[in-house]
Amino acid sequence: QVQLVESGGGLVQAGGSLRLSCAASGRTFSNYAMGWFRQAPGKEREFVAAISKIFSQTTYANSVKGRFTISRDNTKNTVYLQMNNLKPEDTAVYYCAATSGLIAARPVDYNYWGQGTQVTVSS
């Protein structure tokens, strides 16, 4: 079992920055690829970014490329999402997720989920 807890959400003005953290407990963190997803009211859960198990290969949704950076620190069992140049359309609940498989962009491919942290970007 892997437990994930997100933190770092909040209210920020457009153009600002925020860093989300996801702390994992349970099985060895390095055995899991990690992803970030977001869900706005009335919208489906949307892929944001993912990072591989060992070599920190990354992939991003086109909407966040150049603005967001996913990283991981396996010694701290933590994955991060650095969000820069935030836009109002980034407003959503952000979730981290873990998969024992390869990095993926579909929620169904992930085994474990955190409870989410709210990010609100004002114009």
Key features of this structure:
single chain, 123 residues, mainly beta
Task: Please describe the topology of this protein.
Blueprint: E1 2-7, E2 10-13, E3 18-26, E4 33-39, E5 46-51, E6 58-60, E7 68-73, E8 78-83, E9 92-99, E10 112-113, E11 117-122
Parallel strand pairs: 2-11
Antiparallel strand pairs: 1-3, 3-8, 4-5, 4-9, 5-6, 7-8, 9-10, 9-11
Describe the overall structure.
The mean pLDDT is about 95. This protein is mainly β. The strands form two sheets. Strands 2, 4, 5, 6, 9, 10 and 11 form a seven-stranded mixed beta sheet that branches. The chain is globular. Helix content is about 0%, strand content about 50%.
Radius of gyration: 13 Å
Q: What does the largest sheet look like?
A: 7 strands, mixed
How many helices? The count is 0
Low-confidence stretches: none
Q: Residue-averaged pLDDT, rounded?
A: 94
End-to-end C-alpha gap: 40 Å
Helix and strand run: EEEEEEEEEEE
Strand-residue fraction?
over 45%
Q: Report the structural category.
A: mainly beta
Query: Which shape, going by the Cα principal axes?
Result: globular
Summarize the model shown:
Helices cover 0% and strands 51% of the residues. The chain is mainly β.
